[in-house]
Write a structure and sequence with these properties.
- This protein is of the alpha/beta class.
- It has twelve helices and five strands.
- The chain has helices spanning 2-24, 26-29, 32-39, 43-58, 69-82, 86-93, 97-113, 115-118, 125-139, 201-206, 209-215, 245-252; strands spanning 144-154, 175-182, 188-196, 222-224, 235-236.
- A hairpin with a 5-residue loop joins strand 2 (175-182) and strand 3 (188-196).
- Helix 6 (86-93) crosses helix 7 (97-113).
- The longest helix has 23 residues, at 2-24.
- It comes from Holothuria leucospilota (Black long sea cucumber).
- Its main location: cytoplasm.
- Its cofactor is a divalent metal cation.
Length: 261
């Protein structure tokens, strides 16, 4: 009798584990299109993120009934992608709201801890040369080491305090205006993510460390920016009104003045 009860218990546990696995691992059940819709990543992209973060999350989950690292990554990515309340993310992934809260914080800390490894300026001459050759192949513009622009990150449901109004951008949306520099391979090499949405791109640049480094000659090469930036020896921007053949040719030289496309 005891053996029979143990068999039933183990069978039910296996069934619960199978349901748990099927509900909480979108890699097993989501199409590529649905994966991107819910998590803003391709399947390969998600797997890459899991591979990177799993060792950092594994040590915190070596207890019974712990939430697997790949589930933690999916929970956090869903929250990052939508900004939904913890309750909706909780329902979708079959875990409690308190667990969602802890997971988002844990994964966020893990990602932030890796920023200096993945977001860094090229320092060797070989890397600089490869980057310049890459930009020349894309834009036919020599000496370029990066493309600079800003992007507005929505702050839906975020507590903004007494200075809430400074986060309203020109489209009436509450955002952070985040400055990014990327190399010829679309890798981000510099980030400034502390300015509210009402701040102009040029103001953010002129108050950043990268501005000082280029102005002081401590960084070499050229950045490409759009017409919202001031022209500098190290920052090439298009003419607003190219009224001569030379200026028109200059404007047409880079493949894009606002991104690394």
């Amino acid at each position: 009798m005891a053996a029979h009860l143990l068999y039933i218990h183990n069978a039910r546990a296996l069934q619960r584990e199978r349901v748990f696995r099927d509900r909480m691992n979108p890699l097993d059940s989501y199409s590529d299109k649905r994966m991107h819709k819910y998590y803003r990543f391709t399947r390969n992209g998600v797997m890459r993120v899991i591979d990177i973060l799993e060792p950092l999350l594994q040590n915190q989950t070596e207890r019974s009934h712990a939430i697997h690292p790949h589930v933690q990554v999916f929970v956090a990515l869903r929250f990052f992608a939508t900004g939904d309340f913890y309750s909706s993310t909780s329902v979708q992934h079959g875990i409690s709201e308190s667990s969602v809260c802890r997971i988002v914080q844990r994964v966020t800390n893990a990602i932030v801890g890796l920023k200096d490894y993945y977001i860094k300026w090229p320092t060797t001459q070989q890397k600089m040369s490869e980057n310049q050759l890459g930009f020349f192949a894309k834009s036919n513009f020599p000496g370029v080491v990066g493309a600079i622009d800003c992007t507005h990150v929505p702050l839906d449901s975020s507590p903004l305090g007494r200075n809430e109004y400074v986060y309203v951008n020109r489209k009436g949306v509450h955002t952070l205006n985040v400055q990014l520099v990327c190399d010829a391979d679309f890798q981000i090499t510099n980030v400034v993510a502390r300015w509210p949405g009402s701040c102009h791109d040029s103001r953010i640049l002129q108050n950043s460390a990268i501005w000082d480094l280029f102005e002081q000659g401590r960084l070499s090469g050229i950045l490409l920016g759009d017409s919202g930036y001031p022209q500098r020896k190290w920052l090439m921007t298009p003419f607003r009104n190219p009224d001569t053949p030379g200026r028109r040719a200059y404007n047409e030289c880079p493949s894009s003045w606002t991104s690394c496309d």
